[in-house]
What does this fold into?
Amino acid sequence: MLFLGIDIGGTKRVVVVGDHTGRPLEQIRKPMEDSGNWRADLACLVEDGRALLAKWETETGETLARVGVSVPGPADTKRGVLLNPPNLKNWHNAPVGAALQAAFEVEVRVENDANAAALAEHEFGAGRGAQNMVYLTMSTGIGAGIISDGELLRGAFGAAGEVGHMPIESPGESCRCGLTGCLEAYVGGNAWRTRLQACTPESSSVFERASGDREAIRPEHLVAAAKEGDAFACGEFDRWLDYLARGLVPVIMLLEPDRIVLGTIATAAGESLCFAPLRERVAGRLWPHQRERLSIVPAMLGDDLPARAGLAVAAVGAPMLSSAPSAVRAN
Ligand SMILES: [Zn+2]
It folds into this structure.
């Protein structure tokens, strides 16, 4: 049995063939072409998928069991339809699930990118073994996915887990989603970049790291400066940690996760700058039994995530995986 994973991103796309455990065998990564017609763009993905399958079906003697797709939100994943992803204007309302099902003639599962990433970290990365896991990534906005009792929490329309848009200030900063006071407006990469470009003093080494160009300042400059003890950067990072902790506590109270997996900015900042002080800050707002049972850890998949995301969507719940979970975790 083979799985095909497809990751449709705003700038990149990945098509990957994986074995029965979800382990990637070979992948094709390309920039996301935007021909103005989603059907033409999808046909290119299908062509790559067919080429990979032709090779690996011959090599292994096995056949395609299922296709898993990670798509940018918002999406109606239960119907396999993209809604209005801001970075893929020509894909609005594209029924990718049905189109791929017609092309490959097997079951196709579609998840939004945050939920697909959560599944991938849960199956193959930092969430392995956790029954109740919350995944958060803060690259541009905040992507989040929730595993509850071993299953992805989908909600009524497949988009549960929008942790980034929980209000943490009232009325608070404007969020790009149209609401105000959202967690993303304080700790999301884009929102933080805008703030840093406005408030970084020229005396800070953050400014220097951006070659003296205010418009070029990015959160990674701040993280690097904070690691070296720059006073402004440390203060800003502390503020960011405080908002992140404020966002995590209600999630913990609501869902009782045993593991929280944090990607991008948190992973880049690392243990001593981010995770150790964050654990302390979160613990100070929890009951003792909650503190003892919770671990907050960095994401593990990094550059492998796009290949793993589609495969995790395809593989999770397959009969062979549920009967032999150790095989999933062997790689
Ligand atoms: Zn928002």
